[in-house]
Design brief:
cell membrane, elongated, mainly alpha, coiled coil, single chain, Type II secretion system protein GspF domain-containing protein, transmembrane
Length: about 280
């Protein structure tokens, strides 16, 4: 009972902190805009609580909140421990998604850079001037600031532009700059047409990006199926509770239930990991 009371007090304190910070920010905005703050009529609504939590709490911390809720419902500390253990795993998934989005954004910026550079060269500009103008456009902002600065410095002060581009290609998602460096080297050493090579490079990068997008769309169904199957035990618990079987009491307060819970959690984790590993392997190939 003391554990449940402590958990309830922690929930109330967290909600008060979230709403208090949000109300303070809202009051500051209204003071700056010189408009009266709206009257509080809905009180401690769930909508306000969720909206405040989204702005303050990272997604992985909702695993802890879910574990706390189940701990209160099941009168056991085990779900809270499981929720706390899931926080770093969910954080790792979030960071992996962010890194993947950053790589895709950088790859799209490299493709746009090739197209812009080809257009500038076709318009009659010198390669160095064209590179400086293309790197200054908004389409190339997906490339890191350090990589763009190195290439700009090489183009402005007569440095080795291909070397700077190859160095910038080490950034995740910027591998297409290796092709740009090769086109630049061939154009300078052999006098070949830089614009034609850049246009072919842009077409190849766009084709590769489209192939990845198509493959990802084809694998989305398999990934969604794996996640849906992983959520079936939760549906089973809800159905058991609706029928009055009290599955949380059986799982959390009996020896057989704890054994089934441990075995089921291990099998669930291994199955989900294996299914997603197959999907990631197919996507990587």
């Amino acid at each position: 009972m003391s554990t449940s009371m402590w958990a309830a007090a922690a929930c109330a304190g967290s909600a008060a902190w979230l709403l208090g910070g949000r109300d303070k920010d809202a009051g500051r905005v209204h003071a700056v805009l010189a408009t009266p703050a709206p009257a509080e009529t809905d009180g401690w609504s769930w909508r306000r609580l969720v909206a405040a939590g989204r702005g303050r709490v990272r997604h992985e911390w909702w695993c802890l909140a879910a574990g706390l809720l189940v701990a209160l419902l099941g009168a056991s500390v085990l779900p809270l421990v499981a929720g706390a253990a899931a926080v770093p795993l969910a954080g790792r998934v979030r960071r992996a998604r962010a890194a993947r989005a950053e790589r895709e954004r950088c790859g799209a910026a490299v493709t746009a850079l090739c197209g812009a550079l080809a257009s500038e060269v076709r318009a009659g500009r010198q390669p160095g001037d064209a590179l400086r103008l293309s790197l200054g456009e908004a389409a190339s902002r997906g490339i890191s600031e350090g990589a763009r600065s190195a290439a700009l410095a090489a183009a402005r002060f007569g440095g080795e532009v291909p070397d700077a581009l190859r160095e910038a290609a080490r950034e995740p998602g910027a591998e297409g700059l290796l092709g740009l460096a090769a086109c630049w080297r061939v154009a300078v050493d052999r006098g070949a047409g830089l614009a034609a090579g850049l246009e072919r490079l842009e077409a190849a990068l766009r084709s590769e990006r489209d192939q990845r997008a198509e493959l990802r769309a084809q694998l989305a169904g398999a990934r969604s199926t794996a996640v849906m199957l992983a959520g079936l035990p939760v549906l089973g618990l809800l159905m058991g509770s609706a029928l009055g079987a009290e599955p949380l009491r059986v799982l959390l307060h009996t020896g057989a239930g704890l054994g089934c819970l441990a075995v089921g959690a291990v099998l669930e984790g291994v199955g989900l990991w294996w299914a997603l590993r197959i999907v990631r392997g197919a996507e990587g190939r």
